C-alpha cells in the first residue's frame, strides 16, 4: 500500500515503483462553472455532460439555484432549466465557498439585474482581491459596496441598462474578462458594444462556450493583443454541453509520470485548449516524453489523449509570457523542477500570490521542508533540482498545493505527509483513487 491515511485531514505519500495505465480525470472546472452559469442565464433546459462534481462547482450550482435555476440530474448529466436572463433576487447571502470563478463570474451576471445580492466565501476567498471585477462593473453602472473597499463580503446592486465599456485588463485574468463580457450582454448604453483588451491571452472558455449558447463574440488579434467584443441584448439559448477532462487535474498525473522512473501514463479525453496547456510544452522542454493522440473537437473545444513517459528532466526558464497558459500548473511544475537536473526559474507569476493561497510562498516553504534549494522572488521562484527528501508539509487549504506535494511524495526518498489534505475535494476528489489505479496497473520488470 503506497498511500496511507494517517489522519482524516492528513495524507502520506511514499516513493512508488512506476506508474502505468490509461485513465480519465474528472471534468474541467472552468468549463463546468461556465456551463452552470450560462445555463442559468439561458431560456430553456441545458444538458451538461461530464461536469465536475467537486466542491467548487457545487458552489456555483448552489448560487445558480438561489438565482432561479431549476436543477435536476439524469444519470451522469446535469440538467438546468434557466431563467431566460431575468435572475431571481437571492433570499440569502450567496456563499461562493472557495471558488474565485464563482464569485467573479456570477458578479458579472448579477451586475445588470435590478436586485440586491450579497456575495461572500470562505476564509481564503475573503482574502482575495475583488476590486478587479467590481471596478469595471461599477464603471458600467452597477453599484458595489465591498468590505475594506475591495474584499468579500460585498453587496452588489445591479442596474439596468448598463453602459458598454472598452476595458483593458490590468492583469491577464479570464475571470475578470468573463465578468465584464457577461455584464456587456446587458449594456446597451454608450454604443452597446463592450470590448475587453488583453495583452496576454487568458483562457478563452467563455468566448467558446457563449457561441454554443447562441451569443456572437468577436475577436480581433494584433500581435499578442486581443480585442474581445460583445454586443448587448443577445439572448442565451439552452444547449447541450459536453465537458472534457480537466487538463489542470491531468497535469498532476502527467508530472507524476514524468518524474517516477519507468512510468508510462495516458490520460484520455482531456481538454487541450491552447490557452490551458502551456505546462505540456514546458514538460517537453524539460525532456519529458509527451505525446498527444487522437486529437478531436467537441463543443468548440479541442480534446484528446495525452501520454507521458518517464525520461530524466532538466531545468528550464518559465517566462512571463508563458504564465497565463500554465498559471494553475506552476505548483506541480515546481515539483518537476525540484527533481530535474539543474536550475529552473519561474518569473512573471505574481498572480500566484492571490490564488487560493499564496502559492509562491506555499511551494517555497514546502519544497524547502523537503530539502530543495528554492529562492522566492516577488513574482516567482528559482529552484535548484536534485533529490527530494521526506517531511511534513502544509497545503494551506489549497487543493493544488496538496496534490503537488502528493506527487512529490511519490518520487521522494522518504515519505511526504500533507496537512490539510481535504482541500483536494475542491477540484479533484478522485485524485488518490487514480494514483492507486496507476500503481496497480504498473509494469513489473
Ligand atoms: C479561471 C481563471 C484563472 C485560474 C482559475 C480559473 C477561470 O484565474 O487561475 O483557476 O475559470 O476563469 P484568473 O482569471 O484570476 O487568472
Automatic annotation (TrEMBL):
Write out the GO biological process terms. Answer: amino acid biosynthetic process; aromatic amino acid family biosynthetic process; chorismate biosynthetic process
GO CC terms: cytoplasm
Q: Which Gene3D superfamilies match?
A: Enolpyruvate transferase domain
Q: Where does phosphoenolpyruvate bind?
A: 29, 100, 128, 175, 359, 400
Q: Which domain of life is it from?
A: Bacteria
Q: Where in the cell is it found?
A: Cytoplasm
What is the catalytic activity of this protein? 3-phosphoshikimate + phosphoenolpyruvate = 5-O-(1-carboxyvinyl)-3-phosphoshikimate + phosphate
Q: Which CDD domains does the UniProt record give?
A: EPSP_synthase
Pathway the protein acts in: Metabolic intermediate biosynthesis; chorismate biosynthesis; chorismate from D-erythrose 4-phosphate and phosphoenolpyruvate: step 6/7
**Alphabetized PROSITE patterns for the sequence:** EPSP_SYNTHASE_1 (PS00104), EPSP_SYNTHASE_2 (PS00885)
Major place of residence: cytoplasm
What function is annotated for this protein?
Catalyzes the transfer of the enolpyruvyl moiety of phosphoenolpyruvate (PEP) to the 5-hydroxyl of shikimate-3-phosphate (S3P) to produce enolpyruvyl shikimate-3-phosphate and inorganic phosphate.
Q: Quaternary arrangement and interactors, per the entry?
A: Monomer.
What NCBIfam families has UniProt attached to this entry?
aroA (TIGR01356)
Question: What is the protein name given in its UniProt record?
Answer: 3-phosphoshikimate 1-carboxyvinyltransferase
Organism field:
Alicyclobacillus tolerans
* UniProt lineage: Bacteria, Bacillati, Bacillota, Bacilli, Bacillales
Gene behind the chain: aroA
Amino acid at each position: 500500500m503506497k498511500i496511507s491515511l494517517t489522519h482524516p485531514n492528513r495524507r502520506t505519500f511514499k516513493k512508488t515503483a512506476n506508474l502505468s495505465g490509461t485513465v480519465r480525470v474528472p471534468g474541467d472546472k472552468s468549463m463546468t462553472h461556465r456551463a452552470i452559469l450560462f445555463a442559468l442565464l439561458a431560456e430553456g433546459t441545458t444538458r451538461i455532460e461530464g461536469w465536475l462534481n467537486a466542491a467548487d462547482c457545487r458552489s456555483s450550482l448552489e448560487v445558480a439555484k438561489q438565482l432561479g435555476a431549476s436543477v435536476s440530474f439524469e444519470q451522469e448529466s446535469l440538467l438546468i432549466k434557466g431563467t431566460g436572463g431575468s435572475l431571481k433576487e437571492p433570499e440569502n447571502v450567496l456563499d461562493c465557498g472557495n471558488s474565485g470563478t464563482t464569485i467573479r463570474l456570477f458578479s458579472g451576471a448579477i451586475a445588470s439585474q435590478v436586485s440586491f445580492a450579497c456575495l461572500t466565501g470562505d476564509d481564503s476567498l475573503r482574502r482575495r482581491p475583488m476590486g478587479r471585477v467590481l471596478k469595471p462593473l461599477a464603471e458600467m453602472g452597477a453599484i458595489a459596496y465591498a468590505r475594506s473597499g475591495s474584499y468579500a463580503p460585498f453587496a452588489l446592486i445591479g442596474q439596468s441598462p448598463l453602459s458598454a465599456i472598452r476595458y483593458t485588463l490590468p492583469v491577464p485574468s479570464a475571470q475578470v474578462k468573463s465578468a465584464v463580457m457577461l455584464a456587456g450582454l446587458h449594456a446597451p448604453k454608450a454604443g452597446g458594444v463592450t470590448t475587453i483588451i488583453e495583452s496576454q491571452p487568458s483562457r478563452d472558455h467563455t468566448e467558446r462556450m457563449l457561441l454554443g449558447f447562441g451569443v456572437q463574440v468577436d475577436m480581433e488579434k494584433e500581435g499578442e493583443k486581443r480585442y474581445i467584443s460583445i454586443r448587448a441584448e443577445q439572448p442565451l439559448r439552452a444547449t447541450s454541453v459536453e465537458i472534457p477532462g480537466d487538463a489542470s487535474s491531468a497535469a498532476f498525473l502527467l508530472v507524476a509520470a514524468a518524474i517516477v522512473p519507468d512510468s508510462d501514463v495516458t490520460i484520455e479525453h482531456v481538454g487541450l485548449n491552447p490557452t490551458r496547456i502551456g505546462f505540456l510544452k514546458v514538460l517537453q522542454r524539460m525532456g519529458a516524453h509527451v505525446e498527444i493522440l487522437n486529437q478531436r473537437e467537441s463543443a468548440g473545444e479541442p480534446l484528446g489523449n495525452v501520454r507521458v513517459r518517464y525520461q530524466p528532466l532538466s531545468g528550464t526558464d518559465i517566462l512571463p509570457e508563458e504564465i497565463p497558459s500554465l498559471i494553475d500548473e506552476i505548483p506541480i511544475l515546481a515539483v518537476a523542477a525540484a527533481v530535474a537536473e539543474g536550475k529552473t526559474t519561474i518569473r512573471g507569476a505574481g498572480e500566484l500570490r492571490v490564488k487560493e493561497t499564496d502559492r509562491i510562498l506555499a511551494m517555497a516553504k514546502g519544497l524547502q521542508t523537503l530539502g530543495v534549494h528554492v529562492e522566492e522572488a516577488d513574482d516567482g521562484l528559482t529552484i535548484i533540482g536534485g533529490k527530494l527528501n521526506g517531511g511534513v508539509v502544509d497545503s494551506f487549504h489549497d487543493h493544488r498545493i496538496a496534490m503537488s506535494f502528493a506527487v512529490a511524495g511519490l518520487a521522494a526518498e522518504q515519505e511526504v505527509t500533507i496537512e490539510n489534505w481535504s482541500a483536494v475535494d475542491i477540484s479533484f476528489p478522485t485524485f488518490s483513487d487514480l494514483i492507486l489505479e496507476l500503481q496497480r496497473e504498473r509494469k513489473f520488470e
